[in-house]
Amino acid sequence: NASEAAGSVAITVTIANPPADAATTAVNVLIDGVAYAATDNGDGTWTASVPGSVLAGATTPTVTAEAVFTDAAGNDADPVTGSVNYSVDVTAPGAEFVLSDPDGDNIPTATGTTEPNSDVTVTWPDGTQTQVTADGAGEWSATAPGVQPDGAVSVV
After folding, report:
1. Which domain of life is it from (predicted)?
2. pTM of the predicted model, to two decimals?
3. At 89, phi and psi to the nearest 5?
């Protein structure tokens, strides 16, 4: 989504059954032929940080992982590669919501659902904003920071 495209995306590679004689392993993640070095997580996985804009703008939506194993004598094995296709979700998440004032004090609460783990910004009638993140089920809730006048509430 747009927030991921603006930041970095962690791409994790799992290496199952590396050669027993591998003294070192170098892993790169390639997007359109450009290599991003991956860091060993110590648990058989490697993670590379790739700009979201690179993934969103890639000519071919394919991530290729390349591992090179080196033995103790410094001999490199032929690279081992694996690829996976991906898609970029450019559709803004819907943000359906219900507005309530459970205490009758003109401090409303907005609740709703959207895509899981997405950011939601509620703009209150007085112009203040509340930012929240939806949970893993896409549910979110935001309460106005103070008493609100009559007016429109927007959610994005």
Report:
1. Eukaryota
2. 0.59
3. -85, 105
